[in-house]
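Troubleshooting log. The previous structure file for this entry was overwritten by mistake, so regenerating from the original sequence record. Sequence copied from the archived sheet and checked twice against the printout by T.R.
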Amino acid sequence: MNYIAANNRYETMIYNRCGRSGLKLPAISLGLWHNFGSADVFDNSRSILLHAFDNGVTHFDLANNYGPQPGSAEETLGRVLKSDLGSYRDELVISSKAGYYMWEGPYGEWGSKKNLIASLNQSLKRMGLEYVDIFYHHRPDPDTPLEETMAALDLIVRQGKALYVGLSNYTAEQTQKAESILRDLGTPCLIHQPRYHIFDRWVEGGLLDVLDKRGIGCIPFSPLAQGLLTDRYLKGIPEDSRMAKAHFLKESMLTDVKRKAITELNAMAQQRGQSLAQMAIAWLLSHKTVTSVLVGASSTNQLDNNLAALNNIEFTAEELEKIETISKPVWA
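Regenerated output below.
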């Protein structure tokens, strides 16, 4: 059966302008870091992608190494584009990244022009695309001159292989330097993708100020702290949880201080008529510099729960202060 997108797909989503650009992004975007690789069930991945688009999620975020296996998340999206979403390409914002380890040898990671150009060419082939909407440098390179890395991003835009460029995991100082180089080259920095959530505030040490002053959008990843900012661990560690598998989330990370904060934040979310996950997403969106929040999903139900955060994104001053008081022992 041929896929036909929902007629009402733009009725409930909020779209925010990205920095000072002309591009608008959905308040909630879908990240394909987990659950879309070759190790996952394709039909489930496809269902999540189509359900997201039916609900106004127009932005899909990837990287060259997303999987597992590395590259397979891009292949999954490529299959769905070919079978279902290809005719809606102009309604989609598709992003990818390069910088982390992807292939053997001296050119398979970091930030040389050689790596970035080769990586994007590979990504475009896997997805069956002529261009991506946003291409990020995924992490700073301590050895390659910043001028070379930014010149590669500029070249990629001039070649028509990306419409916009962005940065991820750059510090405030690094972002400021990179943005200046890109601006001089004539290719503005559109967006920054940092790790940011209630328990991790490093971006508040200067990065958000740089983004605001330079007109750069912000799209936080890991908004739920890899699942800690949900009700999943209130009564222990479920056998099927990410922490039980101990890949990215270790049991040692669930300290007594965090347990107490999670319990108190969960009670506060219930008072607001939200799940803890929904409140954590809404809290990020309450920051004026945040354009969109990048969420993952292992099912359409989980995606729906995250999307429901948009039903209540307003906070009183007292609520914001209470979140600070509860969470400060974790991040201070």
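The mean pLDDT is 95. Archived copy saved in two places this time.
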